[in-house]
Structure formats: structure tokens, C-alpha cells
Design goal:
With 342 residues, the protein is of the alpha/beta class. The chain has 2 domains: 1-45 and 66-257, P-loop containing nucleotide triphosphate hydrolases (Rossmann fold, 3-Layer(aba) Sandwich), CATH 3.40.50.300; 277-340, Ubiquitin-like (UB roll). Helices cover 43% and strands 20% of the residues. The protein has helices at 14-22, 48-57, 82-89, 102-134, 139-153, 165-171, 195-203, 217-223, 228-237, 244-256, 280-287, 289-293, 303-309, 312-317, and strands at 3-8, 39-44, 61-63, 66-71, 93-98, 182-187, 211-215, 258-263, 268-275, 295-302, 322-324, 334-340. Strands 2-4-1-5-6-7 form a 6-stranded mixed β-sheet, with helices on both faces. The protein has a 3-stranded mixed β-sheet with strand order 3-9-8, with helices on both faces. α5 (139-153) packs across α6 (165-171). Bound molecules: guanosine-5'-diphosphate and magnesium ion.
Length: 342
């Protein structure tokens, strides 16, 4: 499961957001509260189309995709400690929560992440230069680490540059923070009118591929207590779209290069996650390894077509289901029925 680390300064609303997204009830605190252990929880990805198809199919069970959220201890103004950094290096993507002075906070955090990476890269470079004197095979790694170190020394995040596969391999055990996808989450008060301005200003200071979302953690927390339909109505009424979780997860999937596909039927309708570009057998393997091993073919239709047709069987009768082979690249929002034999 993909892990999204929630970070930010004390009182930015990290734990409030964590609770809203996971439905858990970790302690929030109106002061610089620091715990050593992070809060860890699983969020189910809200998915309107999955709910719709489950109703149409009369599915006994509905299973959303999930994402693991890790609410890290507050980021201290005095800098970031080793233990905290280790936790950060462990997640696939970062959600940075900003509240008071979002632009100033973002710039400060960008700089801290860059400095933290630079420390690690500079040390690694020193070690590697010595090793490379005895082992010529390490010359490529030395060059890549040296170049990265220079980029970081210039105050730039590594994700601003293109890196070869070789360089990425050399970076791997350093788990650079500034190479991870970042989702900037501006936490605003319920009645703000500044959302669009804030979003636009933040966009101009963060790397272009980063995602910026504006949410109200407090509202999300309240919304999380409501039934799905009322929640959707509340957020739509406030111009907040489908709410933070759906927006954040979609952005995270996109920046991690992930897509969802579905399996549907009376027993269960379910959303699955696979990397973008995966071929049908790899996607089948997410469901069960037998389906990948014994893959024969996939029956495929888009979930919108299946919903519009009134279900899988109706879609089939309407000729909306195609048959695809082993080399089919799965698209986001495909419904798959795998035919296999083991
Ligand atoms: N009014 C308001 N209060 C908030 C908001 N987000 C968080 N808070 C409050 O700020 C305090 C700190 O929140 P918390 O989630 O513990 O922050 P953390 O230190 O980043 O984990 C709590 O008292 C929250 O109820 C918000 O969007 N609006
Ligand atoms: Mg907290």
C-alpha cells in the first residue's frame, strides 16, 4: 500500500486532517505538541463511481482502494531531527500541511528538505570518492551524487531536474526527500475567500510538478462524521468539490504514477491500484497471483460505460465490453474481468 506522510509545523492541522481522512480519533492539540510516535492509519479512497456500480450490480460487498497515512510528529522550528528524517524517507509521497503564513512556511520547509538532502548527499559523496579510488565501477555513481549535491547546494529540489536511471539507482539508498512527490495542503478557515489567491501564490514558489490543494481540515473533520451523500452535498454547497480525501488521493496517485481499475459483480465491487503503464496480466496479479500466472485474456469496459449501460451484463449485451490480450495496457477506470486457467 502506498504511504503518504503528513508533515508540517505544529498546529498546522496535520492531526485534524489525519483524523478526517482515516475516521480515527488521534489527539489534536492547540499548542506545539510533539510526540515521538507517528499516528498511522488507513484511509479508504472515496469513489462515487464505485458506489454507483455497486448499487447497480447489487454487490454484497464494496471495497475501496486504500492508502496509508502517517501523521508525523510536528516539524520543529529548530530544524529536523534524524529520527524524524528517517520516517520521512520511508514514505512514497509527502503531504505538507500549511496554515499560518502558508507561503513563508512552504519556503522554509522547501529549504529544510533541500538542506537535509544536501547533508546526506555531501557525506555520501565523500565516502564514495574514497571507494571509487579502489573500484572504478563506482565512477558513474560518484558523478551522479556530485551533480545532485551541487543542485542541492544551489537550493534546488532534486525533482526539478531530470535524472537518468543510473543516477536514480545511485540515489536509491539515500531516499532523497526532494525527489518525492509533494502535495501542498493549505489548511484554511471555513469562511475564507482567499483560497484561489493562496493556491496561485503557492504554485509560483513550489516546483511545477507539485500539487497544491486548499482544504479546511476542521470542516473535513466535521464532514467525516456525516453519511456519504450529506457529506458530498455539504462540500459541493461550499464549493469544495468532493472533499479533501478524494482530491488528495487523486493527486497522490497521479504524482506517484498510479491508476485505479475495477472489478464488479454481485459478490463484490472493488477498486484496485496499479502503476500507470501496467499491462493486463500485471493488473490481474494485483487481484491474485493465479490470475497473472494463468492469464488468458481480459474483458474490458470503462466504468462510465458500465454504469451508463446499467451494469456489466447489460454493457456486454450492448457491445461495450471488448476482449484484450496480454499486451493490453490498462487504463484508469477500466473495469476488468480476467479469464485465466491454472
Ligand atoms: N479554526 C480552525 N482550527 C483548526 C484548523 N485545523 C486545525 N485546527 C485546530 O488547531 C489545533 C491544532 O491542530 P492539530 O491537528 O493538532 O495540529 P498539528 O500539530 O499539525 O497536528 C487544534 O486545536 C485544531 O482543532 C482549522 O482549519 N480551523
Ligand atoms: Mg499533531
Amino acid at each position: 500500500m502506498e504511504r503518504l506522510g503528513i508533515v508540517g509545523f505544529p498546529n498546522s492541522g496535520k492531526t485534524t486532517l489525519f483524523n478526517a481522512l482515516t475516521g480515527l480519533n488521534a489527539a489534536t492539540a492547540p499548542h506545539a505538541y510533539t510526540t515521538v510516535e507517528p499516528n498511522i492509519g488507513v484511509a479508504r479512497v472515496p469513489d462515487v463511481r464505485l458506489e454507483q456500480i455497486a448499487v447497480i450490480e447489487g454487490s454484497a460487498k464494496v471495497t475501496q482502494a486504500t492508502i496509508e497515512l502517517i501523521d508525523l510528529p510536528a516539524w520543529s522550528r529548530a530544524g529536523i531531527g534524524g529520527q524524524f528524517l528517517g520516517r520521512l524517507r520511508d514514505v512514497e509521497a509527502l503531504a505538507v500541511v500549511l496554515r499560518e503564513d502558508p507561503l513563508g512556511q512552504a519556503e522554509e520547509l522547501l529549504l529544510e528538505l533541500t538542506v537535509a538532502d544536501h547533508d546526506v548527499f555531501a557525506k555520501k559523496h565523500e565516502r564514495l570518492v574514497k571507494e571509487a579510488a579502489a573500484d572504478k565501477a563506482k565512477a558513474g555513481a560518484v558523478a551522479a551524487i556530485a551533480e545532485a549535491s551541487e543542485v542541492l547546494a544551489g537550493g534546488e529540489a532534486l525533482r526539478l531536474r531530470e535524472w537518468s536511471d543510473g543516477a536514480r539507482t545511485a540515489f536509491r539508498d539515500l531516499a532523497p526527500l526532494t525527489l518525492k512527490p509533494v502535495l501542498w495542503v493549505i489548511n484554511v478557515d471555513e469562511e475564507t475567500t482567499e483560497a484561489e489567491n493562496l493556491r496561485a501564490s503557492l504554485r509560483s514558489v513550489v516546483p511545477p510538478q507539485d500539487v497544491v490543494v486548499v482544504i479546511s481540515a476542521k470542516l473535513e473533520e466535521e464532514g467525516a462524521q456525516l453519511p456519504e451523500a450529506e457529506r458530498a452535498e455539504l462540500f459541493a454547497g461550499l464549493g469544495l468539490g468532493e472533499g479533501a480525501l478524494a482530491t488528495m488521493v487523486r493527486a497522490t496517485y497521479q504524482s506517484l504514477g498510479l491508476i485505479s481499475f475495477y472489478t464488479v459483480g454481485p459478490k463484490e465491487s472493488r477498486a484496485w491500484t496499479v502503476r500507470a503503464g501496467a499491462l493486463a496480466p500485471e493488473a490481474a496479479g494485483k487481484i491474485h497471483s493465479d490470475l497473472e500466472r494463468g492469464f488468458i485474456r481480459a474483458e474490458v469496459a470503462s466504468i462510465d460505460d458500465v454504469i451508463a449501460a446499467g451494469g456489466w451484463d447489460a454493457a456486454k449485451r450492448a457491445g461495450l465490453v471488448r476482449v484484450e490480450g496480454k499486451s493490453y495496457e490498462v487504463a484508469g477506470a477500466d473495469v476488468l474481468l480476467i479469464r485465466f486457467s491454472v
